[in-house]
Amino acid sequence: MEMVIVSSEQQKRLIMLFSRTISKMPDKALLNDLGSYQINSTVYPAFKAATDLRVERIKLPFGDDKRASLEGGDFLYRYLSRGYICLGDFKGQPKPDLTQWGVRSVRKLPKIGFGL
Known about the structure:
With 116 residues, this protein is of the alpha+beta class. The chain has one domain. The chain is 23% helix and 26% strand. The protein is built from 3 helices and 6 strands; from the N terminus they run E-E-H-H-E-H-E-E-E. The protein has helices at 27-32, 44-48, 65-80; strands at residues 2-8, 13-19, 53-59, 85-87, 107-109, 113-115. Strands 3-1-2-4-6-5 form a 6-stranded mixed β-sheet.
């Protein structure tokens, strides 16, 4: 299982992509294929055009959704705590669990995404 985070430091924005398998697609191909992902955010077109996009791949334990949820939440929290905004609405499994960091709810930004 894999969670891929694509982020832009200049824009302080990110997207998360989940897969039950490990992606064989190289980072460069993934960045070139961002148009194929449905992200419900009005700022996604500007995000895709950013020149400083970075890909981080996190292997999550397969078959243990609770542990995968905690590990995914750990990586997501690292970004959100630095002021990043996650674009779109959450889709995919496992859902990152932020409760270990004391986060009970996230701040929704209508038509953009969510942050702390």
